[in-house]
Specification:
This protein has helices at 47-55, 61-64, 72-79, 88-99, and strands at residues 4-8, 11-16, 25-33, 36-42, 58-60. By secondary structure, it is α+β, with helices and mostly antiparallel strands. The chain has a single domain (4-99), classed as Sufe protein. Chain: A (Alpha-Beta Complex), CATH 3.90.1010. 29% of the residues are buried.
């Protein structure tokens, strides 16, 4: 479920398969104005991600580039009880970057034991 789809110039949809937990989700990011992105996290059965989804509505350009320890997405993820290695907060930030035109929509992969999946 690692598929990324860009639905329009400023709308981004990322399907995330975070691994062994099996709690896949869909992240949508859309430009709210020149300096902020609306975030929607949906289709997750993870209670922590559901909490995060309920608390995270927008990300500003300034917040997007804050250091990890000060970044509001990671702070909210911690407050919601997300596991430190959860891939969802990173995917949220990547979706926001793409929606703002600050990054390209390209797949991100982790491979264990040198195994590679077809991209």
């Amino acid at each position: 479920m690692e598929e990324k789809q860009k639905t329009s110039a400023n709308d981004v949809c990322i399907a995330v398969d975070p691994g062994v937990c099996g709690f896949t989700c869909v992240i949508r990011a859309s430009l709210a104005d020149k300096r902020s992105v609306h975030i929607e996290i949906a289709e997750s059965e993870c209670q922590q991600i559901k909490k995060l989804a309920g608390r995270l509505e927008t990300i500003s350009l300034r917040e997007l580039f804050m250091p990890l320890t000060q970044n509001p997405v990671y702070k909210l993820a911690q407050a919601c009880g997300c596991h430190a290695s959860c891939a969802i907060p990173s995917a949220v930030l990547k979706a926001a970057e793409v929606a703002m035109g600050m990054a390209l929509a390209r797949p991100v992969h982790f491979s264990f034991d040198g195994d590679k999946e077809d991209s």
